[in-house]
Amino acid sequence: MARERLCAPRGCSALSTGAVHGLADPSSCPTRTPCTSPLPAAGPLSLFVGRQAASFRALNLRASRSKRHSYLGDLSLSTGISELMERLSEKAQDSLSAALRHVRDAEHLADASNPHASLDQAFHLAGFGPECVRKATLSDRALDKAIGHGVGPSAEMALSAALAWDVVAHRYRLGDWAERFSTLRQWSVDSRYARTGRFTATEVQALLSDARRAVDEVVWAIWADGRLPRTFTW
Predict the structure, then answer these.
(1) Which three-class secondary structure state does DSSP give residue 33?
(2) Global pTM?
(3) Is pLDDT above 90 for 84?
(4) 20 to 30 A Cα–Cα from 145, which one of 4, 27, 131, 225?
(5) Is the pLDDT of residue 52 over 90?
(6) CA angle, 117 then 191 then 162, to 5°
């Protein structure tokens, strides 16, 4: 049976504040009309958006109560938002530590003086560093699988959806890596299936350079924000 709810008309300000499906009080809409169409099923993306919308409204409420401001990167943030610059969760710290380890181990495997060097393994491992460091910045990990491993179009679309709600992660410049670190576009998780000798030293070193820069840029920014404990495993 269809459940009755109120739908905000196109252009209504209540719609922009999430007045549909119980995300906000629809009584703020003076032109609301009854709607008896079935409610859509709550999939992973809709649940993610619902949680983030609620958090964002609470954030705006706290921000409106303060007149002081702080500035983070190129974003002017009220103290209500700056309060979210809390220490990384244990899961996020795990991902950040893993990102550093992946790049460090890949560099070791690419070192010609290493008797157990493997360019193919170095290439495969290096790409996981940027993946882990991007996911470590997100406050909600609901879209981890959608973001996937690389920087392809589908991954960037999912990341953009996550960053649209995450004002803290947004400041770490995660969305333009395909252009800033172009060799990441050549990496794929499927490189693990490549035959031995597939990747040259030049290709591996180029990927390692971009992977190291991407990971270090985010890690040091998070460290500078005071979000890592003294016990963090580097």
Answers:
(1) strand
(2) 0.65
(3) no
(4) 225
(5) no
(6) 115
